[in-house]
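Box 3.1 A note on notation
Throughout this textbook, protein chains are presented in two layers. The first layer is the amino acid sequence; the second is a token string describing backbone geometry. Keep the layers aligned when reading.
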Amino acid sequence: MFRIDWSDIQTTVRTPLGFAYLGNAGKAVSQGLEIELNARDVAIRGLSLNLGYGYTDAKLTQTITGIGFKDERMPLVPRHAVSGMADYSTELSGDLQAGFAWLTSYTSGSYADFGRYKPVRDPVSGNPVAAAAFNRQYLPLDAYWLTNVSVRLEGKSWSARLFVDNLFDARFKTSRTFQNANSPYNAPDVSYNANRPRTIGLGLTKRF
């Protein structure tokens, strides 16, 4: 289990025109737990299994004008993460070994910003209240699965590894940002960063 108390957290701050910069806000907390199970020589010699789970509850502990309300979740922080790994290694002859690895992970969804409505100062009371306009940066990020596999051949002072990352060519967005038009000649749009598609590669290592 873990708990981290933050002060002056760094987060994305936006000007009235929609331009973003990295600034310091107020206080937040990140707490949760991590569980990991390992087993070796399962069913057959050389087979190792690993199962992991992580839960993270990251949220503001105070209301910050223009940023978010107390208890709103931190952006881009998934609540659940699960991983499973299988690795098999066997000796072929002498110093020569071969192996295979499979890693699958699940990441739950999150949001690109704190909440549906930004807190603003009430001109009468001075207290923070929800803005009338919907927060257009409050964009959902979908959950996703990712699988990597590899085969390897190892000698006494060298190794070769053929790998396929993102085996099933999963497509998902790692961030999303609403872009104001700021011009009568443009329309508002949503930009995003995407994950890397299926990648196949070969790695060679020589130890001296």
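The radius of gyration is 23 Å. The mean pLDDT is 92.
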